[in-house]
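Lab notes, practical 5.
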Amino acid sequence: MRRRGLEPMHDDHINVTPLIDVVMCLIIFFMICGNLAKDEGNDKVTVPTASLGQELNDQRDRLIINVVGAAQAMKGGVIDPSVAPQIYVRGQEMAPSGLAGYLEKEKNNAPDLKVILRADRELAYNWIAPILISCAQANIKSVHFATKDD
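Output from the prediction step:
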């Protein structure tokens, strides 16, 4: 049985319209992903170093809380412990008093919620403790501290 070959092309050029469509979709995808990643992180946070740590492989249902030493509290590159830090969740600044309610809503939406706490290495523990208490009030059992390799 004879197989039929490809029909000869009438034009001398290749149609690149589908290629352009795919490239535009990829550009939009990476722009959206870049904005989401930018909202989660904070360039002002200097994460502490640790020699031992645990890798968080499961990235589903995670919430990143950034705790930044207030800009007016910086004295020669060192954070003033008497000034309250700023708390950012998903790129929005949040008051410590409203954090517990926000975490409870997030816990209702995602029962297996994991909190990753990114705090300045110079920040005193008395500013991190209320965030941990808010996590406990929202019944969040998985709280991780972000560190980097030394």
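Observations recorded by the TA: Strands lie at 49-50, 62-68, 74-75, 78-79, 86-89, 92-94, 114-119, 142-145, 148-149. The mean pLDDT is 80.
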